[in-house]
Structures are given as structure tokens and as C-alpha cells.
Amino acid sequence: xxxxxxxxxxxxxxxxxxxxxxxxxxxxxxxxxxxxxxxxxxxxxxxxxxxxxxxxxxxxxxxxxxxxxxxxxxxxxxxxxxx
Length: 83
Prior knowledge:
The protein is 8% helix and 14% strand. By secondary structure, the protein is mainly beta. It has one domain. The strands form 2 sheets. It has a two-stranded antiparallel ribbon with strand order 1-4. A two-stranded antiparallel ribbon has the order 2-3.
């Protein structure tokens, strides 16, 4: 079944920045789950997943505009976390 609008998609991922080691990997836990076509995923990643099917593997590089946007140094905020 192809990934298209209104399909529930689950996938594992490894996340790194170009030239660095992997700093996030879902393979030791639960996969990411989202409903395709409803803006629940980074736009660039959702576009890259469109048309793929179960068992496909691929690599995608997202520009800041396709992901979280350009970094704004003066816009960082620390949030306390209590376990």
C-alpha cells in the first residue's frame, strides 16, 4: 500500500546533521506514527514519504525551511522538566 493522503503511516528513523553521528534513533523503541496529508509531520519529510510503501528505505536531507525553520539565536527558551 502506497503512502498517500488519509493513510496512517508508521516508520523508524535515524536523525543526524550532515557530517555528524546519529543523535536520535527510533529503532530501539516505538516507531513514529502520523496521519499522512494532515500536517502532522514536517512538510519536507511528509513530501519525501509520499508514494513510498512498506519495506522501503531511503535517506532524506531537509533544509531548515522544510523542517523547523532557520535558527534564531535570540529566540531560545529553556523549559524546566520535573520527572
